[in-house]
């Protein structure tokens, strides 16, 4: 409905039916007008908005649900793609990719999909595709800004995140068993007890008298530049 999400038991059938119809329309437009999906990584990634059909297709096959003969390696079986691509969304997506790029080895045209086919189960495939969708779509403002936000899909992300502080301590112990501390967190004998913060940077000429060379040792002034013959 408009004001409330559908019941959970309807989500899977809705996703498969709605996205199947959506893909049919978009693929028809791409073929008729010789268009290409606007991908951001070329062959080295899935098109941003085409992550979901692959993800939904992997979820459809998760647990095999009577399709024990269909494994991630089945994407290399042309007969299976032809006979099962209409009812299994993942195989249909793979079939369409191969139709767009005939005569090109699959590992060259779609290296990421070829790598995914080596995973041992559809559960692993679906979890990886979900992380890919979160990283490439939901976590990127230039992509997700085109979504239709509203009561069902709210824009509740944080506009910006505070910068992370560089760690000063690790879980690795030193040779004597003591805790390793980053160089910038080491206590400076001349500055008193360390509070874990970086010591202030000092210009060479601001050091204590007696630590410099040449003229300008005292008074906190920089040494005067002198010509070699004036030494």
TrEMBL record:
GO CC annotations on file: cytoplasm; nucleus; protein phosphatase type 2A complex
Catalytic activity from the UniProt record: [protein]-peptidylproline (omega=180) = [protein]-peptidylproline (omega=0)
Domain of life: Eukaryota
GO MF, any single term: protein tyrosine phosphatase activator activity
Enzyme Commission code: 5.2.1.8
Keywords: Cytoplasm, Isomerase, Rotamase
Main location: cytoplasm
Any single GO BP term: mitotic spindle organization
Ranges for region Disordered: 160-231
Subcellular location: Cytoplasm
Entry keyword annotation includes Cytoplasm: yes
Pfam families, sorted: PTPA (PF03095)
Keyword Ribonucleoprotein (UniProt): no
Entry-linked PANTHER family: SERINE/THREONINE-PROTEIN PHOSPHATASE 2A REGULATORY SUBUNIT B (PTHR10012), SERINE_THREONINE-PROTEIN PHOSPHATASE 2A ACTIVATOR (PTHR10012:SF0)
Function: PPIases accelerate the folding of proteins. It catalyzes the cis-trans isomerization of proline imidic peptide bonds in oligopeptides.
Family listed: Belongs to the PTPA-type PPIase family.
Record's protein name: Serine/threonine-protein phosphatase 2A activator
Native species: Trieres chinensis
